[in-house]
Model the fold of this input.
Amino acid sequence: MPLKRKYVILITILGLIGFHFIPFNNFYLELTLYIILYAFIGYKTIFKALSNIFHGQIFDEYFLMSLATIGAFVIEDYAEAVFVMLFFTIGEMFEEFAVNRSRNNIKDLMDLAPDYANIMVDNELYKVNPENVDINDIIVVSAGEKIPLDGYVVSGEASLDMKSLTGESLPKFVSCNDYVLSGSINIDGLIQVKVSRKYSESTASKILELIEDASANKSNQERFISKFSKYYTPIVVLCALVIAFVLPIFLGNYQDYLYRALIFLVVSCPCALVISVPLSFFGGIGAASKNGILVKGSNYLEELSKVDTIIFDKTGTLTKGRFQIEKIVSKHLDEKLFLECVAYAEAYSNHPIALEIKEHYGKEINLKRIKKVTNIAGKGIRVQIDSIDVLVGNDKLMQENNIFYDEATEIGSYIFMAINNEYQGYIMLNDTLKDEAVKTAKYLKKRGIKTVMLSGDQYLIASKIAKMIGIDDCYGDLLPNNKVEILEKYMSNNKVCYVGDGINDAPVLKRSNVGISMGNMGSDAAIEASDIVVMNDNLLKIVDAIKISKKTLKIVKQNIVFAIGVKLIVLALGALGFANMWLAVFSDVGVSVIAILNAIRCLKYKSVK
Done:
């Protein structure tokens, strides 16, 4: 069984100390003992260098460190060769510790995948693989267990720990008919859940898939470092060869210039950059995930740090999207019959206004009575109920069909209704602001970020909401294509982030520099259309995402400047003969450890309250 790295390091240190006090009178004995000690501490590095060479990867830190230490043996600096390999191994141990700490934080955070599901069949419980559970199956989740699939609670009540999904520390209480997400942990109680999605489509599965794919979307800094390493290391090796074999032809003193060349090789390792920069972004993505923000790649984190304009959708984003009926005005029909006609017209709609109308109606809708449904984008719907033709929608729909209607006299959202092209009346509803909307707008304004609100509602309604929140610019009476036009206008001179619900705003989310979808973690559209998903409806998470992105980019730039700066200085000193091997080791191993520890700071973030 191979020794652990810490014991190898300890034995090597003791060996070097012992050799220091041994009066070697035999050259071959001294060389043999140092070679044994060198092989003991460095065999993994040498093996890795040879393996990479056979795979076409020559100019990496393992090759350079092996070449430099073997060169030290050539010039008979045995102790220095062993010391350099020792410190390189110590640096690798610190590096491994730092990287594993970062990865484990992400792994622990995103440990959403359930091990099993308890399925109820004929009043018997069976433990099965979640992938084998079908839609409409009943699963049972006991206290302490993870919810394996998305679905609706059909029996029981419980408190759920949803930190890994939403970043919220407070448990969420659920009971009959509440929707629950896979990855949540049942703290107490016993619930039965009717499955609504297959495992492959579940929230936990999609989050894990996106976390795995996030590494493929690299930032500009990561791409720069890859290109930098590709050209930088061979150039430095060529310079080292010139120092070792060309300069001595003109200046003599071969051993001195060979030593300088070895220093050059040690310094040239770009591992501080190659490791710390991706690790910084990895830490930033982890900090975001811990706070309930799913970032699909480091490139989106980088883009978010540059955003100077944020465009918000109104309904469900800045407002709660839970409309309340304030007034029903019917010209000819009984109010209950009027409400019934509107509810039937909205039977197939999931729009927040439609949901409120159907809930207010409160009766089961007989879908057989609905003969024909025609959606009119941005305006409303035409439905044939029994033998009558019903139009339900906004003022644009009435105007388009030349129907005279009552003008709005109060600020609110109006749903007009006509039967057989004869105006019947309207329903007035109002939405309410999200609790954190004003605080979010203040934060963004304080940091010089322009805010814009887009809405399909009448301009009067939209502007009232915008003023209450503190939004800079506001647009109302918009159709979906109008939103894209306005977005492109702002994108001509600004870095724009669009924030929407990810369902109705998919084209705008995709077109913007950065698209953020709010809530709706159960929605495929929210996940697919956006670059960043806020896993609850808290607007302050956008503030968190921006702060995390700026902190991450700041740390990345610090590491790039620090690593390149130190290396260039030591390279110059080495070429001029003012640097020794110890300084060279610090510029490689020491700088790597410092940069990596700095990168780990990306994982530390305290969310805005």
About this structure: The mean pLDDT is 82. The longest helix spans residues 540-576.
